[in-house]
Design a protein that fits this description.
Blueprint (H helix, E strand, L loop, with lengths): L4 E5 L3 H7 L3 H5 L4 E6 L2 H11 L2 E4 L8 H18 L3 E5 L1 H13 L4 E6 L9 H17 L2 E4 L2 H9 L32 H8 L8 E5 L8 H13 L6 E5 L11 H9 L3 E5 L5 H5 L3 E4 L8 H8 L4 E4 L4 H4 L6 E4 L4 H13 L1 H11 L1 H4 L4 H22 L1
Helix pairs in contact: 4-5, 5-6, 9-14
């Protein structure tokens, strides 16, 4: 008997490769999996490398109604032909076009994962448009999976969907963390080696940021807080920035860009396929983002034994327990961020306590295999319910 068909959709293939790493391959043991995304050549490469089928549909990350309708029509025809049992979407644009097409074709199980909402940082007409899009996505879905409890509460409070349609898988996160892969024991020598390559002094306290270098990630505040901190101490700290600049959608302030280029204590290494050596070379994660779903990097850093300074926002405030495995600060507050960074450096007892707890607080709650099993159980429960109904 053939396995039921499961279609997973993201706006760009990078989300399949990084945010859902390993998950589709795991589901191949139970379903006939097809991945749908934009960027035809990259998607084709990914499918060939990972061993699952793919189907290309061009999608944009901006508000583009005409292009979106074309994507819906192409998905509609594909779903009519393939008759999937489950269509599961991730990211806002994939959600709206995927759920609409699945609803139009009568796909029995239409699932959408919410992993952060851009509308949280939007106002005016654009906020109303994004609210409307989210409501439509959730209306066309048969179930919505917020990837954190705080996000669940936000969706309910904003009346975007009814609680009966919402479910948090496991303890949160879209994909969990492979804690054997993110294991500091594997990188005992990398710390010295990479610091030497990057010309970081042995006694320098290294704050690391991993992610897109954009305004919404709090990079403007981070750079300013770091420079202010360094101006007040004799032994200079280092700020290690791991990620690419996104200059079109959410650019940084010009003075911050100049600081990144000219400050000798700020090291920007660009996007890195493997962030583990950079985490191993660091002493603490600084992650002052304005909005998140359930941030992978905070879990990755914790699994690598790093305490975290994060903003008290959705996702971050579920992973980071104040004074246990990190510190929480209000978003968009340079001075509070500077004080938290200073506390990490000067309060040795606190730092040791945070570092000691960092890995255990990830391994005990967000092991990747556990998240996969929880999602599989949710899928299988839907199939059992469908069988009973027929």
């Amino acid at each position: 008997m053939a396995n039921p068909k499961l279609i997973r959709i993201t706006t760009i293939p990078l989300s399949l490769e990084l945010l859902l790493e390993g998950q589709l391959e795991f589901m191949q043991n139970h379903f006939d999996v097809v991945a749908i995304s934009s960027d035809k050549e990259e998607l084709k490469r990914l499918g060939k490398e990972k061993g699952y089928d793919t189907y290309h549909v061009e999608m944009t990350r901006q508000i583009t109604p005409l292009s979106d309708l074309k994507a819906v029509f192409k998905l509609y025809k594909y779903f009519k032909r393939e008759k999937p049992t489950i269509v599961h979407t991730h990211t806002p644009k994939a959600g709206i076009v995927g759920m609409m097409a699945a609803w139009l074709t009568g796909v029995p199980h239409r699932l959408h994962t919410v992993a952060g909402l851009p509308l949280m940082e939007t106002t005016g007409v654009k906020r109303k448009v994004l609210n409307f899009v989210e409501k439509l996505t959730y209306r066309w879905a048969t179930a919505v999976y917020p990837n954190s409890n705080v996000l669940y509460e936000f969706i309910v409070s904003e009346n975007l969907a009814k609680p009966k349609k919402l479910k948090v898988i496991g303890q949160g996160s879209s994909n969990g963390i492979d804690t054997q892969y993110f294991n500091p024991v594997l990188f005992t020598e990398a710390r010295k080696t990479l610091r030497k390559e990057l010309h970081i002094p042995e006694d320098s306290f290294v704050f690391v940021f991993v992610g897109r270098l954009v305004r919404d990630k709090g990079i403007n505040e981070l750079v300013k807080a770091f420079q202010k901190l360094n101006s007040q101490q004799e032994t200079k700290s280092t700020l290690l920035l791991v990620g690419f600049l996104e200059t079109e959608l959410d650019p940084l302030h010009p003075d911050v860009l100049e600081a990144i280029e000219t400050d000798p204590n700020i090291i920007a290494v660009g996007y890195q396929q493997d962030v583990r050596p950079y985490l191993a070379a660091s002493d603490a994660l600084a992650f002052p983002s304005y909005r998140e779903g359930f941030p992978n990097v905070v879990m990755q850093a914790g699994a690598m034994g790093l305490p975290t300074i994060a903003t008290d926002i959705n996702g971050c405030n579920e992973i980071v327990i104040p004074n246990i495995n990190g510190l929480l600060i209000p978003p968009k507050n340079t001075e509070t961020l500077k004080k938290a960074m200073q506390e990490m450096i000067t309060n040795f007892y606190l730092y040791q306590q945070l570092q000691r707890n960092a890995r255990e607080k990830i391994t005990s709650r967000y092991e990747r295999q556990d998240v996969w099993e929880a999602l599989l159980a949710a899928y299988q429960a839907l199939l059992v319910k469908e069988e009973k109904a027929t």
